[in-house]
Amino acid sequence: MDSRLSLEGMMTPAPYCIHPDTNVVEAKKEMEHRNVRHLPVRDGDTILGILSQRDVALSLSLAKHITDEASIRVADVCG
């Protein structure tokens, strides 16, 4: 028996995606609700990147010093 796992076996069949205009606070709530650490960022049919919990935590930490947390969009932190 082959003990290797295929890429298809590791992937989520239809992952929940977020739009780049979503604010980071909402993205954090979605991650918590769905119990995931990463969310694909998609605009239409185009994948723009992956937003991680680390990206969110860093942006919220910095936001406390410079601006309102709800004004930070996913596109601002996911390059």
How would you characterize this protein structure?
The chain is an alpha+beta fold. 42% of the residues lie in helices and 16% in strands. It has a single domain, classed as CBS domain Like (Alpha-Beta Complex), CATH 3.90.1280. It has helices spanning 7-10, 24-34, 53-66, 74-77; strands at 38-43, 46-52. The protein has a two-stranded antiparallel sheet with strand order 1-2. Helix 2 (24-34) runs antiparallel to helix 3 (53-66). It is elongated, with a radius of gyration of 15 Å. The protein starts with 6 loop residues before the first helix and ends with a helix.
**CATH C-level category:** Alpha Beta
Q: Identify the strand order in the major beta sheet.
A: 1-2
Average pLDDT works out at 84
Domain module count: 1
With helices defined by DSSP (H or I, 4 residues minimum), what is the helix count? 4
The name of the CATH topology is: CBS domain Like
| Overall 3D shape | elongated
Structural class: alpha+beta
Structure summary:
The chain is α+β, with helices and mostly antiparallel strands.
Properties at a glance:
4 helices; CBS domain Like; single chain; elongated; 79 residues; alpha+beta
Walk me through the topology.
Layout: H1 7-10, H2 24-34, E1 38-43, E2 46-52, H3 53-66, H4 74-77
Helix pairs in contact: 2-3
